[in-house]
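Let's sit down with a protein and look at its sequence and fold side by side. We need material for that, and I hope you will provide a protein of your own picking. Once you have written the record down, we can walk along the chain together.

***
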Amino acid sequence: MFGLWKTAADTTKYRVEKTDAQWRAQLSGNAYQVLRHEGTERPFTSPLNDEHRTGIFKCAGCDWPVFSSKTKFDSGTGWPSFWAPLNPQAVLKRTDTSLMMVRTEIHCANCGGHLGHLFDDGPRPTGLRYCMNGVAMGFQPGAA
């Protein structure tokens, strides 16, 4: 059920680009499937879902800061959720038409890694829910 990470139509150049073998060697099996092949981790399996300290959530592929604990909320879905990225340039949005529906994928703007999906059922002030795979991120406690 994993899609291809980068299609022939995707000509985006990223600051961090590696071969498939390099990504596979760097990442755990689950992180590789999610970040490089747009997989989804099982809900309620990520320790980041229960991470409530102040800090920054970073892409597990390249350590790029993508979300702040200031915008994290408990969505009840089983995945770490945020109402906004750290800044608009932290992530990229792509249309996902798999599973016979249209969704918005969220990717790391630095390496192109798949982080999760965006939905319009989040809290104020944005009304958005960035539903992220915890295995696709790391957490750095401290200033947010």
